[in-house]
Amino acid sequence: MHVADLLSKRANLTPDREALLEIETGRRYTYRQLNERANRLANFLQQEFKVGKGDRVSILAYNRVVYLDLLYGLPKIGAIFAPLNWRLTAHELEYILRDCEPAVILVGPEFTGVAEELRRLAGEGHPLQGARWIALDGAGLPGSLPYDDLLAQASPAEPPRPPLVGDDPCCILYTSGTTGHPKGALIPHRQVLWNCINTVISWGLTEKDVSPVYTPLFHTGGLFAFLTPLHYAGGRVLLASKFDPEASLTIIQAEKCTVILGVPTLFQMWTNTAAFAQADFSHVHFFINGGASMPVDLMETWRKAKGVVFRQGYGLTEVGPNCFSMTDEESALKAGSVGKPVFHSEMRLVDPESGVETPAGQPGELLIRGPHVTTGYWRNPEATALSFSDGWFHTGDMAYRDEDGFYTIVGRYKDMIKSGGENIYAAEVEAVFRQHPAVADCALIGVPDEKWGEIGLLVVVVHKNQPLNEQELEQDLLDFCEGRLARFKIPKRFAFTGELPYSPYGKIEKIKLREKYVPQTSAHRREK
Q1: Which class in CATH covers the domain with range 420-517?
Q2: How far does CA 414 lie from the centroid of its chain?
Q3: Are strands 324-325 and 340-341 parallel, antiparallel or unpaired?
Q4: Torsion angle, CA of 196/83/311/192, rounded to 10 degrees?
Q5: Rounded to the nearest 5 degrees, what angle is found at the Cα of 475, between the Cα atoms of 473 and 478?
Q6: pLDDT surpasses 50 at 522
Q7: 176 pLDDT band (50/70/90 cuts)?
């Protein structure tokens, strides 16, 4: 079975069951209607645009039902879905488009300016010169064709399908590029389907579950955390094009959502709304955080204030968004842990330098193997070779496993500071400081130091009602971490800022912080 079959088989089993509510338009789609839309898209691309097996198709737009047309329709003709991160500039997108060379690009009305700039950047011989452009929802893009007209004129019947195997690419999802140029992770058909199987089995999803999608559909979390697993199980999805804290709480309650994914920023924004105190989440089976680690005290706020089950998730583009699981009871007992490996997956923790497996309680790099893992990177054999050894994918994340087999993510291996011969994991330090009542958010980065080689600089966002000045607050923060952190882990410098730079999926972009603070900082230095 391939992704080409996922929606068509579900539509055959439960054709009249509601599959999707598009929140902004209020339109509701059954499985039959979604599948017919996917068929229409596949047919007009195949017949009118000659798109076939291996061709790439991209979209630059906010979340809308068209993403599902592409996600489910392109596999029916063997084409590859390559969605674009709409938060990137035209220059950044030009690199991605030059790399993946899409045959067709769909553009929403909100991004016509970016699309026109991309056209200007594409000189003679550029891959974009041969691309066909399709306008969504009346987008005024010269030379483009209207999507709704193409869809309406196409046949709703299943298109002729090319032969496919499990390793054939279904999607190309570009990584955030926090350490350089983004890489196109190849998401094969088997990865999508085994993520569905793992999620349904390990998380206990059923046809009665309902989940909202507030994360962008150019990201693995938006596409594969709940959307495809729930459609595999026969559940229902709510799709939002934008996030509004108050309105989203209203729709979650009105539609009686049962499983809800968010990132730390979303959960904090919900907590800060006036509606949070009165919100009724009795219909919710569990909330789960993804994208970046969530402070344990924020989870506890939700548990105590609303009596809900709250889990910490873990995933990567290359291995899928759902790699661990735990029971409802364990989620409170093991707060901060991501749980145990999902059913069809293997995990190892190894010393990143020696490759030797680490014992319980000792951090090691997380390696993952299973049918839910990528085949590698698009047109990048060097990066592919560096990421695999003996079939194991090197995540680059450091974690430890306790005596009960529960994993806790420590942080990125590359997000480790080596100070005076000691390893300091940024995520561990940040988690402590986020517990301080004056700290709204923080990020630890390493800066060069003549004595220690490297020392920690903590960049802090303070709450608006913070009464202390920066010098007083710095001393208060130092006093706070005494007894909570070993002395070598305590930051030697502090900097205060109004906000931190975030990626589209809630991860702090530390490369931008280093660009700002590493060359020169006026923050204070302390001796060990």
Answers
A1: alpha beta
A2: 19
A3: antiparallel
A4: 10
A5: 110
A6: no
A7: low
**Side-chain-side CA neighbours of residue 182 (13 Å):** 26
- In Å, how far from its chain's centre is CA 358? 28
527 C-beta neighbours (distance < 10 Å), count? 6
Give the residue among 196, 199, 200, 178 at the shortest CA–CA distance from 187.
196
Residue 528 has pLDDT above 50, yes or no: no
pLDDT value, residue 142? 93
Task: State which amino acid sits at residue 505.
Answer: Y
Token duo for residue 403: 């005596």
pLDDT(526) > 50: no
Q: 97-136 burial by CB neighbour count: b if 16+ within 10 A, else e?
A: bebbbbbbbbbbeebbebbebbbebbeeebbbeebbbbbb
- pTM (2 d.p.): 0.85
- Greatest CA span in the chain, whole angstroms? 72
Q: What is the dihedral of CA 297, 293, 410, 340, to 10 degrees?
A: 90
Domain ranges of the chain: 3-190, 420-517
Percentage of the chain beyond pLDDT 70 is 97
Query: What pLDDT, on a 0 to 100 scale, did the predictor assign at position 37?
Result: 98
Q: Give me the residue label for tokens 């974009």.
A: 128
Query: What percent of the chain is predicted at pLDDT more than 90?
Result: 76
Q: Do 237 and 18 form a contact (C-beta atoms < 8 A)? A: no
> Would you say domain 3-190 falls under CATH 3.30.160.60?
no
